[in-house]
Amino acid sequence: MRYRAMFFVGLAVGFVLGTRAGRERYEQMKTLARRATDNPAVQQAAGTAAAQASNLAKTATNKVQQRKPAFADTAIRKASERLPGWRDKMAGTGAQSGTGTGAESGAGAGAESGAGTDGVPPVPAPGGPADG
User: What is the pLDDT of residue 5?
Assistant: First the structure.
């Protein structure tokens, strides 16, 4: 209760001090902000910063595009290691192209039968008939 009272006292003091500054102080700050944004040096600095940000974004996008296949291969390999039957399910839906990294070495026989390499059936996709 004590903290609430202190909060409301602080709020009241802030309100009183803020209203004493008045509308003219607000207008003065607004005018200073407009002058700063209209200043050619500030506009040039903002343009330079925007150009550098754009170049950095392009560089990052290019690096991600170059590394995307490796990321995808790593994700598929780790998923197939941790989720038995996942690779077989993907092969049955046509999502896997068949050119692998060697991680699918035992997945050949189970792809046709619908069971994983260890005899465990694949996990159904979210939103399938089992969810509902």
Answer: 83
